[in-house]
Amino acid sequence: MNKIPKAFLVADIACFVMLLVFLFSLPSKLFKSPTSFVIEANNGNLLSAAIASDGQWRFPVADSVAVKFKTCIIAFEDKRFYNHFGIDFLAMSRAMRQNFKAKSVVSGGSTLTMQVIRLSRQQDRTIWQKLLEVILALRLELKYSKEEIINLYAANAPFGSNVVGLEAASWRYYGRDAKTLSWGEMATLAVLPNSPSLVHPGKNSARLIKKRNDLLDKLARLKYIDQATANLSKLEPVPGKPLPLPQNAPHLLNRFKAERASLEISSTKIRSTLNEDIQLKINSILKRYNNRYRANDINNISALVLDAKTGHVVSYVGNIYQPENADLESHVDMIKAPRSPGSTLKPLLYASMLNDGFILPHTLVPDIPTQIAGYSPQNYDLGYDGAISADKALSRSLNIPAVKMLQQYKYERFYDKLKKLGISTLNQPADHYGLSLILGGSEVTMWDLANTYMGMVRTLNHFNTYKGLYNPNDYNQATYFASDKKEEKDYQRNSFLDHGAIWATFNAMEEVMRPGDEGLWEQFSSSQRVAWKTGTSFGFRDAWAVGLTPNYVVCVWVGNADGEGRPGLVGIEAAAPVLFDIFRLLPNGKWFETPTTKLRKTKVCKQSGYKAGENCPEVVNEWIPASGEKTAACPFHKLVHLDRTGTYRVTDQCESVTNMQHKSWFILPPAMEYYYKIKNSDYKSLPAFMVGCENNGGNNVMELIYPKNGAVVYIPLELDGTRGKIVLNAAHRNQNSKIYWHIDNEYVATTSNYHQLAISPAPGKHSLTLVDENGERLVQVFTVLDKEKK
Q: Model's pTM, two decimal places?
């Protein structure tokens, strides 16, 4: 067997090594320069962009390049681009002859492929560097298609000043997408990478125009365009001062920059789910309202629109955008900012209580002066209804009924429910918030709030789709970028809130009185049905409005980013008008379908809203959530015994049973009755007992409205320095009855009709005893704080 000569073996090894060097000579990533962050609308139009970290306007590589640019750049730089393998020997030989004859460099033979290599290396071009470019160009042609190579060139070619790439150049010089440019505009851009210094405001325009016109004539000779088109294109002006890029979604752009790594998106450009038309119109609406509100030093406003059908963000306006005025803090994205939610969580409590069988939709709840461990909530109008149906308390956004309902439901349970529904800002334990949780005592973000309501909408929308089952993924957060990820299906028998509770809650929210001319919405057949709620935080720092339909969830916030409160900054006046202006932009649609299989037709006491008891005189059949069957029967209708004339109450000790009338009577506790009958003239107080009849205790006849038993009160000083007084307030079932007041077993005063008494007790613990004419007693204690120890 003949041995292989050593020279051949060395040659083979050398060839193999050279082959390996050639194969691995091309970096896995050609261009490592940072790129601009770019957000496009769902139609592909540019919404916002930010300059790259190296100070260049450089967009990521596009999937495709405008046909006109490819035509222009190939005609201008490399007319045999589609016919060579990275090296055009004809062009190189021509350039060498011309340069040798002129004894200087007057022509180049580089192909577009070689220029891509040169742009990626950014090194001084020695003879060895040029030779290496030739080798790398061949390698590039093996790895990339012609279309990919021209895409790389278009994205990385210099276009003058700090503009890199065709897309950035198109927006900087013409304020439009490259695909919309004319032949004259595109020819101008095509000649710039060859001489990027030609673009300079007020300079070099004649040279730029000549180069552009020469290219247009060349396009006409090559039959890409006719000569008439070329001549008309020559009349177009060349760019002057670079234009600012659109900033129609700057806060979403910043959000994307912050979240890109966690979203595992490699590119700095995304096609968002935003509707460009709606985004621009909402920007305009918010700017108009902001101009009006700034007269009252209310500087910031934001809005978020979610598509409940798809779970996509339709519009994202985190704030007005006025970076030139730093005092406005318009850079702050209020959609992400934790703020007090005011009353916007009340529908969630209402839905939770319906869901868990605590109330029915119209159940009466107390609305009376309330003190709970030193906490005294107040209604916005500072009035009291005594008792009000839960749905009306929600639609009127009354605070005291909401606190009473949370006291019944337990704030710990509601705290856990909010976390499950997606409120992520509850960073303290439940005891930190207590009952104030329902009145804005916590913080939420607009993002969480809108997503929570969208989860409820999606759950109800999917009632038929999922055949009565639930998908917890309905509460997933909305997405603001296009994704191929498919929605997971995880059907379950139970959810955070059932279909019936959500349906009843949206019905109650629809009854909220709309602002201004919107209050007449029901008189117009074209009006859109909207379930909505407003909120105002303590100190008038935040004004909220959140609204929903089966298709959309809209959330609006108005206030100051620095937290400064302003008079008149309330949800119904500042945020609600914006909300309905936005809804007028959105398509109208059908209302929610009634989830009949998740509701029960039940006999309900019309007056109390409870399940009808045996003594309820007027009963209606209502659809209630299935869990409502667990609620108690009406506690307010009781059977009373009257004499034969029906004038007095009697017992069998003073009246024969055969002479008695037995009637059902609507009886509220004394404190509730005291305020209820003021606003309900048809309320009938219980008749007095007939003389000689013993009241053997059925109902309490007296109740102390203020202070409650065990209350701690503080008596402030008056303006003149004298010690102030507290006003004790009691209710008696018989308005004409007298009450004898005793403090620490000493008689103080007698009241009749209106039982109020102003006193100034010494600091310390006191016993308060009330006695009426019939000897009924009520004993409670309260404590007066010492001013020095307060």
A: 0.85
